[in-house]
Amino acid sequence: MNDWVVRLIDGGGYWGIALLMVLENVFPPIPSELIMGIGGIRVGQGRMAVLPLLVAGTLGTTIGNFFWYFLGYRLGWKRLRPFVERHGRWLTLRWRDIKWLRYMFRRHGEKIVFIFRFMPAFRTIISLPAGLFCMSPWRFALWTTGGALIWNVVLVGAGYYLGTNFKAIDDWLGPLANAAVGLMAIAYVWRLVRWKDQDRGA
After folding, report:
1. What average pLDDT does range 146-152 have in this prediction?
2. Which residues cross the membrane (predicted)?
3. How far apart are CA 105 and CA 73, in angstroms?
């Protein structure tokens, strides 16, 4: 995958960066750390400029996140109820949990979207509940763009200073992402074991 990403960046330039960042948010296995980090390396080599690189990367990130936002928006949170009540045990969710999440998004949606842009494992998936709970698309775009811009500045800066030793980012971020996923898996199993099929909530 790394060679394919490098070829697309070198062949497509800023358009290649934008396309890869769209794909990274639609298909999360493509890592933004790699894409923007290579962009930072190219800046250090004089083959790219910082400002258009950040514009391309941030625009691609925002567009990619709108895929999941509109998917959630089209589905609508009320349509979830039959699914949650049927499969709630395996989701470890009750309908009252969905209502609580909706309440939190109504009160703190901007903060939630912004903060999750810096999470190694959950930057993209937060767009789905933002759409489900009908967060304003303008507010979603604003806070997604702001968070994505800061994250991309960090990645480009790391790529610029680390140069061809950019793999050091993966050595740090890789275990962090794995630890986050591992903790989520442990939490899921814990909730599943302790689940009681009662009080689904009105």
Report:
1. 92
2. 12-30, 50-71, 112-133, 140-160, 172-190
3. 13
